[in-house]
Fold this sequence. Notes:
By secondary structure, this protein is α/β, with parallel strands linked by helices. It has a single domain (3-179, 212-231), classed as Rossmann fold, CATH 3.40.50.150. It has helices at residues 28-35, 49-70, 96-101, 113-125, 160-169, 186-199, 215-224, and strands spanning 84-88, 105-110, 130-134, 145-151, 171-182, 228-238, 241-245, 251-257. It has an 8-stranded mixed beta sheet with strand order 3-2-1-4-5-8-6-7. β4, α5 (160-169) and β5 (171-182) form a beta-alpha-beta unit. The protein starts with 27 loop residues before the first helix and ends with a strand.
Amino acid sequence: MTDASVTTDTILPETSATAAAPHASIVAREAAHFGNLAQDWWDPRGSSAMLHRLNPVRLRYIRAAIDLHWDLDDRAFTPLRGRDALDVGCGAGLLAEPLARLGARVTAIDAAAESIAVARAHAAESALTIDYRAGGVEAVAGETFDLVTSMEVVEHVASPSAFVQGLAAAVTPGGMLVMSTPNRTWLSRIALVEGAERIGLIPAGTHRWGQFLTPDELTALIAGAGMRVIDVTGLTLSSSGFVLGASTSLDYFVTAVKD
């Protein structure tokens, strides 16, 4: 899928006094959609319930990736101590907070200022120090991080290629990038768009199937941004919940490194 097949919308003006200037990666309707869900983000039975079920699997994948890449002790409680991490499209902090607990100095950005406000409040209640910023990937232009994560975000941006370029630019040499996104297959269309959204497991309007990227498309974008893809792992649903595996037909993770 080329960038021309992704609809570019009006950039969303920031509404927070501490928000960054509008950024070209942001699609207004996408930011508004998720901003409307912000107050419910931390409710495990609310509109983000699916993300709460998915988060432990994300963390397992990320933990295995960092342990392997940096040859860390997989029994350590704070393996990211002394390292800088960036979560792009952080929502209200479901992944940013665990990264901080793993020891990282975390910066987290999101297009919806409403989500950032909720994230800051929740981090304060949890006594966690996280640098939350409202904006797109442009909010960290010129900064680099050991670990950059972006979960289920690339399908919501104005230009996937420019977005991936921005993510790659934020990775320090020797660092790594971890992304996840739905695959553009008949299964994802039935399960995510025509299924989960229709029955309310995912808020209606969350996905636009034509904006999903295949693993070949995403890995090509990452390689084009100067990073080396070292792993592609599928994410599927079983009777017991989300599981990692070989099949990428529904959703998948990608890990890349900057040599």
